[in-house]
UniProtKB/TrEMBL annotation:
GO molecular function: fatty acid binding
PANTHER family: LIPID BINDING PROTEIN-RELATED (PTHR33122), LIPID-TRANSFER PROTEIN DIR1-RELATED (PTHR33122:SF60)
Any GO BP annotation: systemic acquired resistance
InterPro entries: Bifun_inhib/LTP/seed_sf, Bifunc_inhib/LTP/seed_store, DIR1-like, NsLTP-like
The organism of origin for this protein: Carex littledalei
Keyword Signal part of the UniProt annotation: yes
Signal peptide: 1-32
Transcription regulation among keywords: no
Keywords carried by this UniProt record: Signal
Protein name per its UniProtKB record: Putative lipid-transfer protein DIR1
Domain Bifunctional inhibitor/plant lipid transfer protein/seed storage helical: 37-109
Pfam families: LTP_2
């Protein structure tokens, strides 16, 4: 505790705290920008109501816009994995989403 009271160490401690805060902000920014099959986590969240639950609503305009930029063959590769259910997404509903957005799903999907 005596070290923290030293006036010589206060600027160093402040610099370390600022550096750690800067790193946290950059990590949060990077994670918010991560993409899966060319669709961001935020865009996935836009579609989540339409691919979960027993009576899902139609996809929103934002969801369909995001889906139009997604790599559909890549997304289809997850249809039999545990990844979608782990995110609370029903794979069967997810595979029907392109048609609900007026898009053609890949043949192997």
């Amino acid at each position: 505790m005596e070290l923290l009271r030293s006036p010589k160490l206060v600027p160093s401690v402040i610099l370390v705290i600022l550096f750690l805060a800067f790193c946290d902000v950059n990590v949060m920014r990077a994670s918010a920008e991560q993409k899966i099959c060319n669709i961001t986590e935020q865009e996935l969240e836009e579609c989540k109501p339409s691919v979960s639950g027993s009576d899902p609503p139609p996809p929103s305009t934002e969801c369909c816009d995001a889906l139009k930029n997604a790599d559909l063959p890549c997304l289809c590769s997850y249809k039999n994995s545990a990844f979608l259910p782990a995110l609370g997404i029903d794979p069967d509903l997810a595979m029907k989403l392109p048609a609900k957005c007026g898009m053609k799903a890949p043949d192997n999907c």
